[in-house]
Specification:
single chain; 316 residues; alpha+beta; six-stranded mixed sheet; four-stranded antiparallel sheet; 7 helices; 15 strands; 15% helix
């Protein structure tokens, strides 16, 4: 049986000091996805036979000398599965998906104020239906996206996205290695999006993720008590309960796993709230749009979310 190790100090992330801030809101896109955990995680834990995933997007509002800019980070899912490419529909057939509204119905007329939409990556539950946005809303994608995923379906019958997803709009590919706004935060390449230190994009292979509204990740802090060591697959106090499984969904499984490990350095920092776009435990803890996340530390959300995943192992 593993012993509890002594805690270590969280590493420095080298985030530059800045007096500029953005307002960030989390949008509950209302879709819920029910699937077999073994589609994405391993090993199987007896009794945990269904993985329930929420779907969140983030609205970033920046007020600068040149006016107000609004950026959406991810768009959730399309309300109609018929709007996806055939390769995506074959995957979603393996899941149970429920919906109330899509992000355009939630935001209403505010979609006309969105300057850009950032796709963290190409998966169906992040790209939404950009065709419902004004044509002057830019689409921001990660390094190599155009070469890897464009053109979309039907020009490429095996594509994960459709041509309709980006038709008629400006598609901008982030370059994390060029320009004075490129830097490194923790072990990630980063880009100072507005150029004033208020909002960063991190280069996570498989996705781009914003610094302040990052991800609530793989829970590597020691488990509180011998009870959890007994049910841990590796009887470890420092390793996650689950590992990523590669069923062919991940474009670069090895890099995705490395990105999750790097992100634990951010999760260990008490001044950073890491949120996962699919974590249903955020319901009932954080405030959702139109409220913002900026007072998260005062409201104690990090402590409330840290061990919420243990609910998955509750005995029936």
């Amino acid at each position: 049986m593993a012993e509890f190790p002594a805690p270590t100090k969280a590493p420095s992330l080298d985030i530059p000091v800045s007096s500029s801030i953005v307002s960030i809101s989390c949008i509950d896109t209302t879709s819920m996805v029910h699937l077999d955990p073994m589609m994405v995680l391993e090993p199987h834990i007896l009794g945990h036979d269904e993985l329930v995933c929420a779907n969140f997007a983030f609205l970033i509002t920046h007020k600068g000398t040149d006016g107000t800019h609004k950026v959406l980070f991810d768009l959730g899912a399309k309300k109609s599965i018929d709007g996806y490419a055939p390769s995506v529909r074959a995957l979603t057939d393996l899941m149970r998906i429920t919906f109330d509204k899509d992000i355009t119905e939630i935001l209403g007329d505010e979609i006309n104020e969105i300057n850009a939409a950032i796709w963290s990556h190409h998966h169906w539950d992040h790209i939404g239906d950009l065709s419902l946005f004004p044509p002057d809303t830019d689409l921001i994608v990660g390094p190599g996206f155009k070469q890897e995923y464009m053109p979309g379906y039907p020009a490429n019958k095996d594509a994960w996205i459709t041509e309709r997803d980006y038709k008629g709009r400006n598609v901008l590919e982030i370059d994390f290695d060029a320009g004075r706004h490129s830097l490194k935060l923790g072990n990630f390449k980063a880009l100072d999006y507005f150029g004033d230190g208020s909002f960063y994009l991190l280069d996570c292979p498989e996705s781009i993720s914003p610094d302040m509204v990052n991800l609530k990740t793989s829970r590597r802090a020691p488990c509180p008590g011998s009870l959890f060591l007994k049910i841990h697959p590796k009887h470890s106090a420092t390793e996650p309960f689950y590992e990523l499984r590669n069923p062919g969904i991940s474009h670069d499984f090895v890099q995705a796993a490395k990105s999750m490990t790097k992100l634990t350095e951010f999760d260990a920092n008490e001044d950073i709230l890491v949120l996962l776009a699919h974590d249903p435990e955020m319901h009932g803890v954080i405030d959702f749009w139109p409220k913002d996340l900026n007072e998260w530390k005062k409201k104690g959300w990090k402590d409330k979310l840290r061990w919420a995943f243990l609910k998955d192992f509750k005995a029936e």
